[in-house]
Every structure is written in structure tokens, then in C-alpha cells.
Amino acid sequence: MAESSTANTVRIERIGQVALSVSDLERSRAFYRDTLGLEFLFDAGNMAFLRCGDVRLMLGTSDKPVEAGGTILYYKVADLEAAHGVLVERGVQFFSEPHLVARMPDHDLWMAFLRDPDGYAVGLMCEKARAAA
Q1: What is the distance between the alpha carbons of residues 25 and 82, in angstroms, rounded to a whole number?
Q2: Which of 5, 9, 42, 101 is paired with 65 by a 20 to 30 Å CA distance?
Q3: What are the start-end ranges of the E strands in 16-93?
């Protein structure tokens, strides 16, 4: 009997966890928890886990040097200007202020970028609905 084609199909539907190697776990935990406002979940050895919606962020130290590369995590916010203002008040310096990235059929995509303590780029994104014409 032939197997159905769906029996051999793998379907990945969402990200469950993202891992970042960090140079100083305590400093990075404080940045993601206290500065960006992610919910702290737990520590496990040289790792800290935080929640961002349905995705878990794992921060972990390594015996290898941390090199911030081309990976960018984009965090959705409801109001980019308000989030930007709060983070500036907390001492965050943005290397790219809030700006329009693309006009979609029913919304505009806005983004802003900052760096975490290890130099990783962090994106804030906001999908602003347009008023019906």
C-alpha cells in the first residue's frame, strides 16, 4: 500500500524559541527584561529564558567570543512612537529612528532599530492600519 504524500511531509508552523549567545548573562537579562520589557521566565545554568508572545528567547553564555552578526530579531509593538519614547527615556540609543518601510494594501509598515548590550541589532516593528477611504 502506498503511503500518502502527507505522511512524509514536515510542516513547520511557528518559531518556539530563539537563542542568542551573550557575553554577560546578567547584563543581557536585565536589558531584555527591564529595558525592553520581555517577561522573565527562568534561569537554567548559564542561560536565561524570557517570553515574547508565543516565542521564548534564550540568552546563553558560551566559552566562544560573542560576535554580533546579521541576525536581527524584530519585535512587534502596537505604537512605535510610544515604544521609541519610553526606550529613549530608559537610555536606549537608536541607530535608526522610527521610519516608514513599506506601504501595504491595508497598512503601513514602520520600523526602528537599536542595539543590545552585545551589539546585536534589535528591530521594533509596527503595522499601522490605514483609515478606510
Answers
A1: 28
A2: 42
A3: 17-21, 39-44, 47-52, 55-60, 73-76
Q: ∠ at Cα 98 (50, 33), nearest 5°?
A: 15
Count of domains in the chain? 2
Q: Domain limits at 105? A: 68-133
pLDDT at position 7 is 63
User: Which residues are paired to 117 by β-bridges?
Assistant: none
Q: The sheet that has 39-44: what strands, in order across it?
A: 17-21, 55-60, 47-52, 39-44
Walking along the chain (133 residues) 10 residues at a time, the average pLDDT comes out as: 60 88 96 98 95 95 82 92 96 96 92 94 93 68
Beta-strand pair 55-60/47-52:
antiparallel
Strands 55-60 and 17-21, sheet pairing: parallel
The rounded distance, in Å, linking the Cα atoms of 17 and 81 is: 27
